[in-house]
Amino acid sequence: MVVIRKYNERLASNTESKNLTFVLQFLLLGFTDDPELQSFIFSLFLFIYLITILGNLLIILVISFESHLHTPMYFFLYNLSFNDICCSTVTVIKMLVNIQANDQSITYTACLTQLFFALVFAYFENFLLAVMAYDRYVAICYPLRYNIIMKPNLCVLLSLFSVFISIIGALMHTLMVHRLSFCTNLEIPHFFCELVQVIKLSCSDTLIDHIMLFVATCVLGGVPLCGIIYSYYHIVSTVLRIASLEGKCKAFSTCGTHLTVVSLFYGAGSMVCISSALSALPRKSAVASVMYSVFPQMINPFIYSLRNKDMKIAIRNLLSSIMSLE
User: Fold this and answer.
1) Cβ neighbours of residue 230 under 8 Å, at least 6 residues apart?
2) Taking the chain (326 residues) in consecutive chunks of 10 residues, what is each chunk's mean pLDDT?
3) Each residue of 200-233: b (16+ CB within 10 Å) or e?
4) What is the sign of the dihedral through the CA atoms of 313, 318, 324 and 326?
5) How far is CA 75 from CA 59, 64, 154, 218, in A?
6) How far apart are CA 42 and CA 92, in angstroms?
7) Coil, strand or helix: which one is 29?
């Protein structure tokens, strides 16, 4: 009877622990607990999100309806704008809902889902920027062969390959987090389920996760960055051989917007890494992460629309067409 009782107690304990796994919830602490500041943060991020959506949607519509923009460069810009909308939606929407509902909780499944898609879109942006740098490299270094090299099939293939690699990388991280155990501390000092912050909460051995994170950062982040540096090394070398100053300015102007976006994206990412390493306050890393997870997605449409002559003309034509319909 004692053995049976112990077996039943153990079975009940196992059942209870399994049930706890299913109802496991994290708390997204966000930026502050002050109700007045919460209202300000809600208004600020709602404004940023709407600007991000409207700006990137405008870029997508302009590229879709203007036939002279149906080129490889604007095909990749189309993908970048779509990716920026998705990235901002994944990270910001849950925070806005939590502030509005005055509820910081996020379920275990929702947290892993958010983590997965945030990684997919972050990795995809890395590869997109590298592919766009390659496009500019071919356009400036091999202008006569540009249409032969950058065929539509190759552009689609490069985009699909980038998406595939991004999904594989994000899936590996998500599955590694899924195998971790979480104990009593389930508070994430962030406004979304960031990979590093979730790993820190685990009471399991996270050595393999940290090794995989380091390897993935070097491969999925470092390789695209090396590709961008390689492309711009040859671009600069080619431009410097151009005799006329006007020719140099014209060549640089074709890649100026992309270089600005690259500098913003990787500069913001570097700032986050430095801030996380130097700051002892976890919530300061959440503030710093805005610089790479929210801010670039809002600024990118302005960079491409204000610094690109073809985009400005196309936007003007689209707006005038809309006005004429009214």
Assistant:
1) none
2) 39 41 71 79 91 92 87 93 93 89 88 94 94 93 90 94 95 92 81 87 87 89 92 89 77 79 81 63 64 82 78 79 69
3) ebbeeebeebeebbeebeeebbeebbebbeebbe
4) negative
5) 11, 9, 12, 27
6) 10
7) coil
Q: What's the pLDDT score for residue 203?
A: 85
Tokens of 52: 């991000």
Predicted local confidence at residue 230, as pLDDT: 94
Beta-bridge partners for 65: none
Tell me, what's the pLDDT at 197?
85
Cβ-based neighbours of 123, under 8 Å, separated by 6 or more: 165, 166, 169, 170, 220, 221
pLDDT of residue 184: 74
Q: Got the DSSP string for 180-206?
A: --B-S--EESSSS--HHHHHHTB-S--
What tokens were used for 300? Answer: 């990118």
Strand partners, 182: 202
Assign residue 102 a region: left if phi > 0, alpha if psi is -120 to 50, beta otherwise? left
Closest CA to 309 of 250, 265, 267: 250
pLDDT for the residue 283: 59
Q: How far is CA 262 from CA 12, 131, 155, in A?
A: 55, 12, 19
Beta strand ranges found along 93-159 (DSSP E): 105-107
Nearest to 173 by CA among 153, 198, 148, 154: 198
Spatial separation of the C-alpha atoms in residues 76 and 40, rounded to whole Å: 35
Token duo for residue 65: 């309806």
Tokens coding 318: 């689209």
Counting runs of H as helices and runs of E as strands, what totals does the chain give? 13, 3
Please give the pLDDT value at position 87. Answer: 92
pLDDT at 68: 84
pTM for this model (two decimals): 0.85
DSSP 287-310: HHHHHHHTHHHHHHHHHHHHS-HH
Residue 272's SS3 state is helix
